[in-house]
Design brief:
- The complex is a heterodimer.
- Chain A has ten helices and no strands.
- Chain A has helices at 22-43, 45-70, 79-117, 121-124, 130-158, 170-194, 200-213, 228-233, 238-250, 259-285.
- The longest helix of chain A is centred in the middle third of the chain and has 39 residues, at 79-117.
- The two termini of chain A are 27 Å apart.
- By secondary structure, chain B is α/β, with parallel strands linked by helices.
- Chain B has two domains: 17-238, P-loop containing nucleotide triphosphate hydrolases (Rossmann fold); 243-311, 2-Layer Sandwich (Alpha-Beta Plaits), CATH 3.30.70.
- In chain B, 34% of the residues lie in helices and 28% in strands.
- Chain B has helices at residues 58-65, 87-90, 109-119, 124-137, 153-165, 183-198, 210-216, 234-239, 255-265, 289-299, 314-322, and strands spanning 17-27, 33-43, 47-51, 73-78, 81-82, 94-97, 171-175, 202-207, 219-224, 227-232, 245-252, 269-275, 278-283, 303-310.
- The two termini of chain B are 20 Å apart.
- The chains are: A mainly alpha, B alpha/beta.
């Protein structure tokens, strides 16, 4: 590729920027776009934290503190079962936190920006291919997803009334978490580029709720045997693979889907969502 | 339909072409032909205006030249870069002020500029320095740390201009830069554009205000229904109407009959047409014209309630070309 083009000579007294090598320009613009998102996130950090920890905090509080205290059996009445349930739930909540960041950090801001604020315009005019601006959104969402996932652990350490036994499988956790973050953020890009602002309520009713309630958060997918059709139907839900994967990475003694399938499925979802999402992004910004 | 004007009409020979298009066209999905076979040349250092009514295709033209609208035909080069083949590179050489406010609301006035500089490869220090200079230039230095939501329309527009030129683009594109601004803010923006012009910045702007095109532009292209109808310096365009003055008559009574009467009886009235409830006369001379119009109207039994005389404007040119008013 030719890397420099001689700019047309400027009128005297007016010095113009020279054209830089495309690859350098792309790299610098991409990095600056990431920095912009980080800057905005840090400016509203307290808000981000509140928004991020509320759901895991309440879930853990109700299911692993209140229920055992009032003797409401979830996951069984005996303490051993309850400890096991807490482990199941922690893994589920980590997956949920990541998926929510895909919606909150990627999909909702995009719906707003495309819908009426048009703020994204200046970033779309940054000197890099339009699709890379979509990819950059995925990276931001992925980073936020990982932060959100990390915030679940201190909550899990403090809130439950029962003991929490996590047995962390680091190689699995450190590969699975970024992969799950990628899946969630790219799903966010797909949704954010396809949903009009007045349809946001449908987004919640038709996508977010089924995704989360049928995402094997409160129960391992492997236990769905008695409702066989459901066990098969939820396989189209990417969250199932995340929660199953985090169970494999975090808790001992709970059966989970084979790890190979988990990686294959999440990778497949991520690639498909990234292609769909960046394509949708380009369509939204270039008429 | 008049033939498309020569793309170099009215241009000073010498400066290189910064924008050039050949047969540039856009048909939107659904079949709307927004721009049809546009041949256009904008030379270094000039302010080039696209003047036309709503829906003429001005924003679509700017969109195609700034990589936001994918042309369905033709070619376009900006600053030596093929916009259609290499849009990501073309973005390096353009600065854009779109028709709507696109400032980043999550950031302050200054950070809008600093991050824009970073997108274009400036180091943190360079970007901060460029932002500070630019804020002085558009008279917003005292607002640097405000959120952009706290800016008035005129200030927001000036900040968008500052952002668009921060990375020293070869061409600055402005889409209806003063639409919706009060007269004072409009003058402030004109001043800034004049300064940029004096520094040699090449500017392409769209407008549907004839006085804006007249005051600001070296050359004006008149656009309607996706085509250029005329192109020249404002002076030459106005001269091309051939009229010494334009008289507008407001009267009670049959305007069409009055038109016939004035055409026939008043020496110097060359043409009369009814437009927007007024009678519009083209006259080849000015002296003694108004009294003769008044008495001829009385003889025709029509009471004239208002009468105005003016030199031809770019609006005259537009009406001559299309039979319509610019605002409609
Ligand atoms: N995204 C789009 N999809 C379909 N048609 C469009 C689209 N954008 C513009 N058009 C149509 O193309 C034509 C030209 O529109 P354009 O916005 O370029 O005009 P304009 O001269 O900028 O007008 P205005 O002064 O109102 O901004 C219009 O008929 C418009 O309805
Ligand atoms: Mg427009």
């Amino acid at each position: 590729m030719t890397t420099t083009v001689t700019p047309t000579s400027p009128a005297p007294g007016h010095e113009l920027a020279r054209i830089r090598s495309p690859l350098t320009a792309y790299r610098q613009a991409f990095a600056a776009l990431l920095q912009r998102d980080l800057h905005v996130l840090l400016k509203s950090l307290p808000l981000f934290i509140v928004r991020t920890i509320m759901q895991p905090l309440l879930l853990m509080f109700v299911f692993t503190y209140v229920f055992p205290k009032i003797g409401q059996g979830i996951g069984g009445r005996d303490p051993g079962e309850q400890v096991r349930f807490t482990g199941v739930l922690v893994a589920g909540v980590v997956g949920l936190a990541i998926v929510f960041q895909g919606i909150q950090a990627v999909a909702l801001p995009l719906v707003q920006e495309f819908g009426y604020s048009k703020e994204i315009e200046d970033r779309v005019l940054a000197p890099l291919p339009t699709k890379m601006v979509g990819v950059q959104k995925i990276v931001t969402g992925m980073v936020q997803g990982l932060v959100a996932a990390a915030l679940v652990f201190p909550i899990a350490a403090v809130v439950p009334a029962t003991a929490v036994h996590l047995r962390i499988d680091w190689p699995v956790l450190l590969t699975l978490a970024p992969l799950a973050g990628w899946t969630a953020a790219s799903l966010g890009l797909v949704l954010g580029t396809r949903v009009a602002p007045h349809n946001v309520s449908y987004l919640f009713a038709l996508v977010v709720l089924p995704l989360t309630f049928l995402g094997a958060i409160y129960y391992p997918w492997t236990t769905l045997g008695p409702v066989r059709w459901l066990k098969i139907a939820v396989l189209i839900n990417p969250l199932v693979y995340m929660t199953e994967g985090f169970r494999a990475a975090l808790v001992a003694g709970v059966p989970h889907m084979a790890l190979g399938w988990i990686y294959v499925a999440l990778l497949g979802f991520s690639v498909a969502f990234t292609l769909l999402g960046t394509d949708g992004f380009a369509r939204r910004v270039v008429t | 339909m008049p033939a498309a004007p020569d793309p170099n009409a009215g241009s000073r020979p010498g400066p290189p072409a910064i924008i050039s298009t050949r047969g540039l066209s856009k048909t939107y999905p659904g079949g709307i032909r927004a721009v049809i076979g546009l041949d256009m040349v904008v030379r270094a250092g000039e302010i080039y205006g696209l003047l036309g009514p709503n829906g003429a295709g001005k924003s679509t033209t700017i969109g195609m030249l700034t990589t936001r609208v994918m042309p369905t035909g033709g070619q376009a080069e900006v600053g030596g870069v093929d916009v259609i083949a290499r849009p990501a590179v073309a973005k390096q050489v353009i600065g854009v002020v779109p028709q709507t406010n696109t400032l980043d609301r999550a950031m302050t006035v200054r950070d809008n500029l600093v991050f824009h500089g970073r997108y274009f490869g400036m180091s943190g220090r360079e970007a901060k320095q460029a932002a500070a200079e630019m804020l002085e230039r558009v008279r917003l230095a005292d607002r640097a740390t405000m959120p952009v939501l706290a800016l008035s329309g005129g200030m927001a527009q000036r900040l968008m201009v500052a952002r668009a030129i921060l990375h020293r683009p070869q061409v600055l594109f402005l889409d209806e830069p003063t639409a919706g601004l009060d007269p004072q803010s409009r003058l402030a923006l004109w001043d800034i554009l004049e300064e940029l012009h004096a520094d040699g910045q090449t500017i392409l702007l769209t407008t549907h205000h004839m006085d804006e095109a007249d005051q600001l532009c070296d050359r004006v292209a008149i656009m309607d229904h996706g085509r250029l109808l005329a192109l020249d310096t404002p002076t030459a365009l106005k001269r091309s109407t051939g009229a010494a003055s334009i008289v507008r008559v407001t009267a009670d009574g049959d305007l069409h009959r009055l038109a016939g009467a004035l055409r026939a009886e008043v020496d110097g009235v060359e043409d009369a047409q009814v437009l927007d409830g007024q009678l519009r006369l083209r006259a080849s001379r000015t002296t003694g014209l108004l009294p003769r119009i008044v008495s001829a109207s009385e003889r025709a039994g029509v009471v004239v309630s208002d009468l105005s005389i003016a030199e031809p404007t770019l609006e005259t040119v537009f009406i001559d070309l299309t039979g319509r008013d610019l605002r409609e």
